[in-house]
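U., I forgot to send this yesterday:
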Amino acid sequence: MHGNSGHQECGGSVADARSVAGFDGAGGPERRLTGEARGGVSVEAGPGTLSLRLPFRSPLCPDNLFGHLAATAVPGVEEWRDGAYRRTLRLPYGQGVVALRPAPGHVACELTLTDLRDVSTAISRCRWMLDLDADPVVVDDLLSRDPVLAPLVARSPGRRVPRTVDGAEFAVRAVLGQQVSTAAARTHAGRLAAAYGEPVSDPGGGLTRLFPSPQALAGLDPAALAMPRSRRTALIGLVGALAAGEIDLGPGADPERARARLLELPGLGPWTVETVAMRALGDPDAFIPGDLGVRLAARELGLPTTPGALNRRSAAWRPWRAYAVQHLWATGDHPINRLPSA
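Result:
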């Protein structure tokens, strides 16, 4: 789905990323709560399911946002089912499964939690992953000043940056994705999840595991990884640093400090580090001029294709270069740019 047909509009204001719903209904161990993600509420410990509406500033183009998450989904950890992106969540008090579906004026969110005290954290992470607190009008206005990007923005306003619910998870996946196809990266990540991820119950779908924590991966056998030695070394070094708390990729982490620390690790170059900065740390100006998809788009659009020259040309897109990357990627024919048909 491309163009205006994919845009979801919202006339409401954006709820704070950490706010939770004003729920209706309570009581019982299997409580089902509904509401809209605005206004605080206190909940007791215990399992439950919540149906929420996550508001955003319009416009919002769901194509690349949900398309990217679905196309790169790790088997057992993520899936696209019945028009929704679903995934497992590791939370402070327990586990969760979330289903997120683009809808007119909001993102429909269904959360199933083993402990309802995690509701605020879960909502915050989902909003972060979908970049729902972005101001697309400001972003699109600046990018539209560039004559090369202007028609792309006009065709698909409101593009968001698909992020993650877990910075450490994404960093591991970025290393697994070095110089391989999307399908190969999914396969590698799925094997790690199956071997080291904690089991999850998902009666409503096909999710089976949490993505393994750095602590769980710290004991993995490098020889068991079906990848080049250089990438195995990079993965082991990253997992060790994350498990030891030497790198902060969590909410509120300093992007520059994280970049510097990541670059000190073996096998982590500019592509991996900037990808992590863009999608795990949420740096709106992260840019990956060496990325194959970006370079192919640059060539098609008549932009410089060498990383150095393209980096200089991208100065006009600051401080929103991460959003420019989404528009460049969208010029290619790849599943990340389309909502799944099923």
